[in-house]
Design goal:
Layout (H helix, E strand, L loop, with lengths): L1 H8 L3 E13 L7 E13 L2 H15 L1 H7 L4 E8 L2
Parallel strand pairs: 2-3
Antiparallel strand pairs: 1-2
Helix pairs in contact: 1-2
Length: 84
């Protein structure tokens, strides 16, 4: 939600956004998450820097879920921009 809002404010033409989450869990109980990766797949007429900045802002400042999860495990992200 944050990424969509930030891109809109940056006047980027976002057609769609999908986020895939994967990670690793501890081998022994409790099997908590030990590593998480988010892959943002965006479609539209988008500037690479605007997308990178929007995701970083969301991850580092606005997303309370990411902030909570980072206390338990490293959270990394990457993104892919597909044409409109």
């Amino acid at each position: 939600m944050d990424v969509v809002s930030i891109l809109k404010k940056k006047r980027q033409k976002l057609d769609s956004l999908d986020i895939e989450v994967s990670g690793e869990r501890a081998k022994e109980p409790p099997t908590v998450w030990t590593k998480l990766e988010l892959v943002y797949r965006l479609r539209g007429e988008l500037d690479d820097k605007a997308v990178r900045d929007a995701i970083k802002l969301s991850q580092e400042k606005y997303c309370s879920v990411a902030a909570m999860l980072r206390k338990a495990a490293p959270v990394t992200f990457r993104y892919e921009i597909q044409p409109a």
